[in-house]
């Protein structure tokens, strides 16, 4: 088998490396720091953190977060733009009082307000995303520290990132991850998966009644501001895997080979399933256990309890199988480094993208439950030879490989190019 060459984290262009600032336009053209605008969802924030890491600025990043009111009636207002949601909640709260709208869905227990903005990513606190403060900081520190890189991901961050660009265009370079649907000129660069343009395909147009087509976005094909990826950005590259392999050596090295890793997500808007998929997965896993040395199973935050309970009941006592209990430390990166093959549920673009960045066998279960643009995503993975359907007939001792998916490093290279066109560069 040919050795797999994993994507390396990109550095600054070689032609720029090591030159004094004065030869590259002085400090004003050198980006030394980054601001990440998050939305509180790990899958979205991981994309921004991964890109900043690939650009060499992970030691100089600051995370801000756009937050929404939570609990009670707010669960019905998440479809609104975040700014309108906050204003509407403020008005309702003033009229009727807080307590009547913080009643939890179950019983009459009040839903607690978030204790800290950084809960969930290992930080004690994260700054609230405030446009005025970020713009002020970018302008006041420009002469001393140079331009500011702003990276945002997710629907709730669009208005914040675009406002920063509008108010401080001479001082910032703004990258929006995931398609903002319209007005791409609000950003310097947009990074989005190819399947976000699925609505423009003839096959998609046939599925939408003519009178509704004008409401389906995007309306135009990608322009020069758009960087297309196959999947999601993340933090997995050769350097990260080497580091995690060392960190998890004592736990994973003694395990019998091959090590099969199973990552289970949860149903989504475009990939709906229930315990039917759990039954299919457990039956198929039983069939391949004879060719496995060890099996490690992990659930995501989105996994419904009825699915995890069924898998625990069917597989939890098998001597070859270990099911992660959700307690820290999270072994996910250790799984990617030490796993010999992966089974991933079809609903998770992030988990599939990370697994496909290892160059190791990736099997997908549940793709038949997916619709709309997820169908296009899985088609592209299969066409590139990155994944195969999990049938339960596989011999896990037989390996196969492919050029690892390198969306993050390729996106980082496009950022370097776009900055150079503006006369700026990155200097970690």
Automatic annotation (TrEMBL):
UniProt superkingdom: Eukaryota
Pfam families reported for this sequence: Mito_fiss_Elm1
Protein name stated in the entry: Mitochondrial fission protein ELM1
The organism encoding this protein is Rehmannia glutinosa
């Amino acid at each position: 088998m040919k050795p797999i060459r994993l994507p390396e984290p990109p550095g600054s262009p070689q032609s720029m490396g090591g030159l004094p600032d004065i030869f590259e336009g002085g400090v004003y053209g050198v980006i030394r720091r980054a601001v990440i605008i998050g939305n509180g969802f790990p899958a979205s924030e991981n994309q921004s953190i991964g890109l900043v890491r690939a650009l060499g600025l992970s030691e100089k990043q600051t995370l801000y977060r756009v937050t929404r009111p939570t609990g009670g009636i707010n669960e019905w207002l998440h479809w609104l733009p975040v700014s309108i949601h906050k204003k509407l909640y403020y008005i309702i709260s003033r009229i009727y009082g807080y307590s009547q709208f913080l009643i939890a869905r179950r019983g009459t227990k009040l839903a607690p307000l978030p204790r800290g903005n950084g809960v969930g990513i290992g930080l004690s606190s994260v700054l609230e995303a405030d446009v005025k403060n970020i713009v002020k900081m970018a302008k006041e520190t420009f002469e001393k520290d140079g331009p500011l890189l702003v990276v945002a991901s997710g629907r709730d961050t669009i208005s914040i990132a675009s406002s920063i660009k509008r108010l401080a265009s001479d001082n910032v370079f703004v990258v929006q991850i995931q398609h903002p649907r319209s007005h791409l000129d609000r950003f310097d660069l947009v990074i989005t998966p190819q399947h976000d343009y699925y609505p423009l395909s003839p096959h998609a147009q046939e599925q939408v009644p003519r009178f509704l087509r004008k409401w389906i976005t995007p309306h135009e094909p990608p322009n020069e501001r758009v960087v297309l990826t196959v999947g999601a950005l993340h933090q997995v590259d050769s350097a990260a895997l080497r580091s995690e392999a060392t960190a998890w050596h004592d736990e994973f090295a003694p395990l019998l080979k091959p090590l099969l890793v199973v990552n289970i997500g949860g149903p989504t808007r475009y990939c709906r399933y229930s315990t039917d998929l759990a039954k299919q997965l457990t039956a198929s896993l039983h069939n391949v256990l004879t060719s496995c040395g060890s099996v490690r199973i992990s659930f995501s935050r989105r996994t419904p309890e009825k699915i995890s309970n069924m898998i625990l009941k069917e597989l939890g006592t098998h001597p070859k199988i270990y099911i992660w209990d959700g307690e820290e430390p999270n072994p996910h990166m250790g799984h990617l480094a030490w796993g010999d093959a992966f089974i991933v549920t079809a609903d998770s673009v992030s988990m599939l993208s990370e697994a496909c960045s290892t160059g190791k066998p990736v099997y997908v279960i549940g793709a038949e439950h997916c619709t709309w643009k997820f169908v296009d995503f899985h088609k592209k993975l299969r066409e590139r030879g990155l994944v195969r359907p999990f049938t339960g007939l596989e011999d896990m001792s037989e390996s196969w490989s492919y050029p690892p998916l390198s969306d993050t490093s390729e996106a980082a290279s496009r950022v370097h190019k776009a900055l150079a066109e503006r006369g700026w560069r990155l200097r970690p």
